[in-house]
Write a structure and sequence with these properties.
Layout lengths: L1 E2 L29 E7 L3 E7 L6 H20 L28 H11 L4 E5 L2 E4 H17 L7 E5 L4 H12 L3 E4 L6 H10 L4 E4 L10 E4 L4 H4 L16 E7 L7 E6 H15 L6 E4 L7 H11 L3 E4 L8 H11 L3 E4 L1 H8 L12 E4 L6 H10 L3 E6 L9 E4 L11 E2 L3 E6 L12 E7 L5 E2 L3 H7 E3 L7 E11 L5 E6 L3 E4 L2 E4 H8 L5 E12 L2 E10 L6 H9 L10 E4 L13 H6 L14 H14 L17 H15 L6 H5 L3 H15 L18
Helix pairs in contact: 3-4, 10-11, 10-17, 16-17, 16-19
Length: 697
């Protein structure tokens, strides 16, 4: 604010008898920060600020930066404003650590020699020792080697969570190949796209695929290891740190997913840091519950097995069932587990969560971790909580923070070993502490790039202006440095969102949805209904007069995973626009949507109780007992929360699948009533002998 009413000093020099000895005034605006500039003979700058929003250090730093910029303007008035940026950003890692020459397969084999008889992996009632796991992996590895698998060969895996997943991953790595995980629940169209895009000729699976484009299918069923008695000695491939190790497919804005190629160097750097930071031992038990198509699963598998701990694998879809997870953690004495923050919130609502006393450390990543959730965690669980951050393009995680109960925020932390983080403006200049900019990453963790997409790789992996010959990855994340050097996450600069920890490009969903013949126009947005409850909403213009939501849901379900299907489809005659003609997304998100059909009220106590739970969690007021849970905006995560409340309300051990099988209030109430009748104790049978009277003759 530049004052345009300065007082003329000559007024004070008047000879009149009337004088003013002192003038004091207080002036405040409604803004948290105001800079007052007054120009007389000297330039006067005054800052007024709200103490609860800014610290004294913030203001001192702002004044120093402002003074430096003004000095530069005086020294060279012809400079453009963007050239005056204060280059005082921090780009240091926590330490430059030499990466060992040993590669991941050899490190695992050394661990096998140390603890051959220790249990390496448990899945339900099955288990394998380190020696047994190594032998089975070697059997498959030699089979793959005979088929021509070598370094840089991409090998597909399409398996449900099981022991065979661990065997398959190790086998591929042992012969130098890179694994490409494919979720068997994906639509067949997406599976075929991945197989063709990655040019996969060998697929490890345990099911048949009609019209599969893969040349060789290896079925890892129980009898495989008897049918293929290959060598069980350790293979010795010619492998280097710069060879690829896995290719993970992530959402792409064009309508098709894209594969990120990571290397042994990047992953080894990440795992070495993790072991130094958290010191896993053979006494630890790590829960493997992340779907293996996401990179968190990589450290769950390999960090555990490289350090002699026991890997406990959750049942398929078990990662969505908070009650099951709590019981499994207690029964298996789990010490280490990962949660996406939105799932952690659901998990903490479980009654048994506070009984998970074996937990030493909980690791969060994939979404922003709120202060409220952090506080609730420490109130419920007596364990260490770590907040990690990293994109798939940089070997899982690049920054880390150990949460403290008294911190005012939850930053994404400091960079890990051999990683550099840069907060830059649009001109790739370092920004000062407290100023928001885009996060760029450098160092050993960077991925090689995107498979078969050189243009996209060049766009996102750019030359490092601070180190000749090095690269930086543009994350698209907006962050800022805190005073203590920690990095704080602020938001995104594009349409990429996280839904239940899964990275999604809204453009991909829009591109596929627009292929439907009845869609004239569509917009997909993400809306947060409550902390940890973010849902996809599709706004559509159609050529039909009737509701086609179910048809669209089925159309998308044949092409993209379930987590990419919008919770609700809202039909509009036209989209709201801003004054300058652009799409008004705020107006779209503010729209209320409700069903136009007749509302049927609850008919009994069970239906009433269910409806109240749905209203509270789904944030929907007008409900009918024949409304479909998933059409109202429900998803697997919300289903977990609803199921937890239903179990508490009805004192029932209700399977999570019940809500998927009975998705209306009426059908769900009927199922609950049947279960309640089946678990009620039977009436005590009458002892007929007590009704007899003996008469002595």
């Amino acid at each position: 604010m530049f004052e345009n009413y300065p007082v003329d000093l000559s007024v004070a020099q008047t000879t009149q008898s009337l004088t003013i000895d002192s003038v004091k005034s207080t002036e405040w605006t409604s803004l948290p920060l105001t800079i007052l500039v007054a120009g007389t003979r000297e330039l006067s700058i005054k800052i007024k600020y709200h103490c609860h929003r800014f610290s004294d250090g913030d203001i001192d730093r702002l004044l120093n930066n402002f003074q430096n910029i003004l000095t530069k303007i005086i020294e060279n008035p012809k400079q453009q404003l963007w050239e005056l940026s204060e280059n005082i950003g921090n780009a240091e890692s926590t330490g430059n650590v030499e990466i060992l020459d040993s590669l991941l397969p050899q490190l695992f084999e050394k661990q096998v020699e140390k603890t051959p008889d220790n249990i390496a992996v448990i899945f339900e009632e099955e288990s394998l020792t380190y020696e047994q796991l190594n032998k089975k992996a070697n059997q498959v590895a030699h089979h793959l080697q005979k088929l021509g698998v070598k370094p840089e060969t991409l090998v597909g895996i399409c398996l449900q969570r099981s022991l065979e997943i661990v065997i398959a991953i190790l086998a591929i790595l042992k012969v130098g190949g890179a694994y490409v995980p494919i979720d068997p629940t994906y639509p067949l169209e997406r599976i075929n796209f991945i197989l063709e895009d990655a040019q996969i000729s060998i697929l490890l699976t345990n099911q048949d695929f009609p019209n599969c484009p893969v040349k060789t299918l290896i079925n890892l069923q129980t009898n495989y290891f008897q049918s293929y008695p290959e060598q069980n000695t350790n293979p010795t491939p010619e492998l280097s740190l710069d060879n690829s190790i896995y290719a993970l497919y992530t959402s792409g804005s064009t309508g098709n997913p894209k594969a990120v190629i990571n290397t042994h160097r990047g992953l080894l750097n990440r795992l070495n840091w993790m072991q130094k930071a958290y010191e896993l031992t053979p006494d630890d038990r790590v829960l493997q519950k992340t779907p293996y198509t996401f990179d968190v699963s990589v450290w769950e598998f390999l960090w555990t097995l490289l350090n002699g701990a026991c890997l406990v694998i959750a049942k398929p879809d078990g990662h969505q069932d908070s009650a099951y997870l709590a019981s499994l953690i207690i029964e298996q004495n789990i010490t280490t587990v990962h949660f996406v923050p939105s799932m952690l919130q659901v998990f903490l609502e479980e009654q048994k969560a506070s009984q998970c006393n074996s937990l030493k450390r909980v690791i969060c990543s994939g979404e922003a971790l709120s202060v409220d959730l952090r506080n609730r965690f420490f109130q419920t669980i007596k364990a260490e909580l770590n907040n990690l951050y990293g994109p798939t393009e940089a070997a899982i995680d690049v920054t880390a923070c150990t949460c403290q109960t008294d911190d005012l925020s939850v930053p994404i932390g400091l960079p890990i070993d051999n990683i550099q983080v840069y907060v830059l403006n649009a001109q790739l200049q370092l920004l000062p502490v407290g100023v928001v900019g885009e996060l760029y990453l450098g160092g050993e963790g960077l991925a090689r790039g995107y498979l078969n997409k050189p243009d996209l790789t060049a766009e996102n992996f750019v030359p490092n202006p601070f180190k000749a010959g090095a690269r930086l990855y543009r994350t698209g994340d907006l962050v800022r440095y805190q005073e203590d050097g920690n990095v704080e996450y602020v938001g995104r600069i594009d349409n990429q969102v996280k839904i239940r920890g899964v990275r999604l490009e809204l453009g991909e969903i829009e591109a596929i949805l627009s292929q439907h013949p009845d869609i004239i126009a569509c917009v997909v947005l993400a809306k947060e209904f409550a902390p940890g409850d973010r849902r996809l909403l599709a706004y559509i213009q159609t050529s039909q007069t009737e509701d086609i939501s179910e048809e669209l849901r089925q159309f998308l379900g044949e092409r993209i995973p379930n987590y990419g299907i919008p919770s609700v489809f809202i039909t509009l005659e036209s989209f709201p626009l801003t004054n300058n003609g652009k799409l008004n997304t705020k107006a779209l998100l503010a729209l209320n949507y409700s069903s136009k059909k007749e509302i049927i009220s609850p008919r009994n106590e069970t239906e009433t109780a269910i409806m109240e739970i749905w209203k509270e969690i789904l944030k929907v007021d007008n409900l009918s007992i024949d409304d479909n849970f998933f059409e109202l905006g429900g998803n697997s995560l919300i289903a977990t929360r609803v199921n937890s409340r239903l179990r508490q309300s009805f004192s029932l051990d209700l399977p999570l699948r019940t809500l998927f099988e009975k998705p209306t209030i009426a059908s769900l109430a009927q199922r609950i009533d049947v279960i309640q009748l089946s678990v009620q104790p039977a009436a005590t049978p009458i002892d007929s002998t007590k009704q007899r009277k003996e008469i002595e003759i």
